[in-house]
Amino acid sequence: MEAQPCRTDGSISPRLFTNPTIDKITAADVILFATPVYWWGMSAQLKLIIDKCYCRGLQLKNKKVGTIVVGGSPVDSIQYELIDKQFDCMAKYLSWDMIFQKSYYATASDELAKNKDSIKELENIGKNL
């Protein structure tokens, strides 16, 4: 992967694989950021996408945003709070309307999918977007 800083005109290198994803994010009415917890934070992959969004900050203002975080510790663990606070700071800076922040505890790859209450909650969020 090639990592380059933003250009002075607010664009990023056209050769970067993230450009199509960033274009979709800036065009969206609602943005859902979902991540597993890694070392008390979001995944490096999501962080890369968010970093690349920096160049398009003005195009992201006033977006409706939600987060889904899944980790291997109970949801009262500090890791979820840290990620929520990081997104709260980004939301304030970019004037996002943070419409939901959901955290889930799962230790097996299919555990969340088998949790009927959590799936129902996520389905209801989707219906209300």
Automatic annotation (TrEMBL):
The keyword Flavoprotein applies. Keywords: Flavoprotein, FMN. SUPFAM superfamilies: Flavoproteins (SSF52218). InterPro entries: Flavoprotein-like_sf (IPR029039), FMN_Rdtase-like_dom (IPR005025), ISF_SsuE-like (IPR051796). Coiled coil: none annotated. One of its GO terms (molecular function) is oxidoreductase activity. This is Predicted flavoprotein. Residues 19-78 form the NADPH-dependent FMN reductase-like domain. PANTHER family: NAD(P)H-DEPENDENT FMN-CONTAINING OXIDOREDUCTASE YWQN-RELATED. Pfam families: FMN_red. The keyword Flavoprotein applies.
